[in-house]
Amino acid sequence: MKLEDMIMVVENRKGTETNYLLNLTDYMETALKLWGEYAEDMAGAISSLYETKEDKREWSQLYLAANKSIEAAFCREESQLREFLSGHFNDGEWSFDAERCSKDCLDVLRIYNLKTDGHSLFPYLHYERVERTFYAGETLHNLNGNDYRVLAPLSPKNLLLVGLTDRQIIVGMGVQFYERYPKGERPDEDSMVRGIEWDHGIYLGDDIIGIDFDILKQEYGEPDKVENISDLRDKIRRNFWMQKNVEQKEGLPDRVRNAAKDCLENTFGTSEPDVFGKMLDKGMYDGMYDQREEQKKISGQSR
């Protein structure tokens, strides 16, 4: 059984809440017993439950009587499961009833090294490192319980990530991919959890507009490989725009922006993007900027 197939259930009787975990079959049987004469509405209840799997709603609700109700939702990720086990979604008095849980749900807790209170079991998991190439746009599960989307691989082991829950942007340093399963057991698709861990993270906040990606690439990426003229021009273009972004960045002191403009003029013969583009296409920078007179001629014509 997969974590995403488990159903988190909060049963409320006269203001006292009981949490437990069920598979779909056991959930339907439980709801039928509690619902009694209203069982004909089960199809609608299951449809509402599946909307929690599709992110259309957080919880489905069954009102069985004035003082009795059930809230339920498919578990979406490990961090949500930990919150459920620790009572994050409860109001007032609550308890977790392991005896009412489906057995395969308790097996999932064991596979994720979780006790029924949300804390970790004594560490007895085996980690197998797997060589893997990371790609922009993919979603990665961190073995600490959170999920992230890759915004950009800065290098093979340094990734620019965004948290799917809190939207925090992070540079994950030294990212490795693992397959994890209980020690002493033969791993299979149900017992194996795949995900990443990193040496440490650089937290950049949640404002993507304020992040200078060129600086991040320079700071945490690896040197650009220049194997042909196209690679060379791509590198020159990035260097130009890294300095141009400084010149255009609002809020910086004028002396800093003017210094960036002077640097552009001295290095590229111009600070104008359209002029720079013409020079780049003509190969003016292919010989390490040794054709200054031609640069000045083109720059003067454009102005």
Structure notes:
This protein is of the alpha+beta class. The protein is built from 9 helices and 13 strands. The protein has a 5-stranded mixed sheet with strand order 3-4-1-2-5. Strands 7-8-9-10-13 form a 5-stranded antiparallel sheet, with no helix packed on it. It has a 3-stranded antiparallel sheet with strand order 6-11-12, with no helix packed on it. It is elongated, with a radius of gyration of 28 Å.
| Elements, N to C (H/E) | EEHHEEHEHEEEEEEEEHHHHH
Number of strands: 13
The number of helical runs is 9
C-alpha-based Rg, rounded:
28 Å
Mean pLDDT: 84
Describe the biggest sheet? Answer: 5 strands, mixed
General shape? elongated
Q: Assign a percent range to the helix content.
A: 25-40%
End-to-end CA span: 68 Å
Class inferred from helices and paired strands: alpha+beta
**Uncertain spans, ≥5 residues at pLDDT below 50?**
289-296
Q: Proportion of β residues?
A: 15-25%
Strand order of the largest sheet: 3-4-1-2-5
Supply database-style keywords.
single chain; 303 residues; alpha+beta; 9 helices; 13 strands
Secondary structure layout:
Layout: E1 7-13, E2 16-22, H1 24-35, H2 42-53, E3 60-65, E4 68-74, H3 78-85, E5 94-96, H4 103-111, E6 125-130, E7 139-141, E8 147-153, E9 159-163, E10 169-173, E11 176-182, E12 193-197, E13 200-203, H5 213-220, H6 229-248, H7 254-268, H8 273-281, H9 292-302
Parallel strand pairs: 2-5
Antiparallel strand pairs: 1-2, 1-4, 3-4, 6-11, 7-8, 8-9, 9-10, 10-13, 11-12
